[in-house]
Specification:
This protein is α+β, with helices and mostly antiparallel strands. It contains 7 helices and 12 strands.
């Protein structure tokens, strides 16, 4: 296994070509020259975006062997100590093995979130109309973008983002013109999402969040549909990750054209 730090490993993308929707984040990391990539260049790819705030990603060939799984565990234990500080996104068979090995060594890992990966080749408008309209946030709306980024991170992943980090993230998103809100008829920003480039073929819709008091009013569906239509016009296919157990959100995505591609799992303490 060879370790790369902040190096372009684009040649590895050929290994995960058939899995590039569920593993879109990994696909992007290995080509962007960010974070850490550990691989045997044949059947195993492990990535970390650079901080334990974000999950590790573990990909293997479908017919992974027990010997290879043990090798993966030893790499994770050595390179990402203490492993208890991290979460890991991977397939269920790999997750089951890692949970067993980690817990044999005194850990307390378990399955945390089931992750549906979707793609939306043909966006569909929601059937029911809502008040307001979707807009791209302007570069001057840093404070609003930062607040929504913090709220989205807390609501989606339980991650508490500092005001400083949220402002930095907001400025980057605004500079790239990749942050969107739905404003209701009173002009209030009630729903939020972002666009994230993943590959030459896919753009992810991420950070999908609706203010708690405004949920159930279908604002998110209209906003995400609008963003998806923009992505399709750019010649890309929208993709999206969702908590598989959050029934109402998954129904919303399916109703506006998202098709289930695969399901992974996040494991951790």
């Amino acid at each position: 296994m060879k370790k790369y730090e902040k190096q372009d490993c684009s040649e590895l993308r050929a290994l995960i070509e058939e899995d590039k929707v569920p593993y879109a984040v990994l696909y992007r990391i290995i080509g962007d020259g960010v974070g850490t990539v550990i691989t045997d260049h044949k059947r195993i790819v492990i990535t970390c975006s650079g901080t334990n705030f974000y999950p590790l990603w573990v990909w293997t060939a479908k017919d992974v062997t027990k010997e290879e799984l043990n090798q993966i565990y030893e790499v994770l234990k050595t390179e990402f100590a203490p492993l208890s500080d991290y979460k890991i996104n991977t397939r269920y068979d790999i997750a089951d093995f890692l949970i067993g090995r980690i817990n044999e060594d005194g850990g307390r890992f378990k399955a945390l979130v089931n992750i549906n990966s979707y793609e939306c080749p043909v966006p569909k408008k929601p059937k029911e109309t809502v008040d307001g309209k979707g807009e791209r946030l302007g570069k001057e709306e840093v404070e609003l973008a930062a607040r929504l980024t913090r709220e989205a991170s807390q609501a989606i992943s339980g991650l508490v983002v500092s005001e400083e980090d949220s402002i930095k993230s907001a400025r980057e998103g605004l500079e790239q013109q990749n942050l969107f809100v739905w404003r209701n008829s009173e002009g209030k920003a009630v729903s939020f999402c972002a666009k994230r480039f993943e590959s030459d073929e896919y753009i992810a819709v991420s950070e999908c969040y609706t203010v708690e008091s405004e949920r159930g009013k279908r604002y998110a569906g209209w906003l995400i549909n609008q963003v998806c239509e923009e992505i399709v016009k750019e010649g890309k296919t929208p993709i999206l990750y969702a908590d598989a157990d959050y029934v109402s959100s998954n129904r919303c995505y399916q109703n506006i054209g998202f098709v289930l591609n695969s399901t992974l799992v996040t494991i951790g303490k």
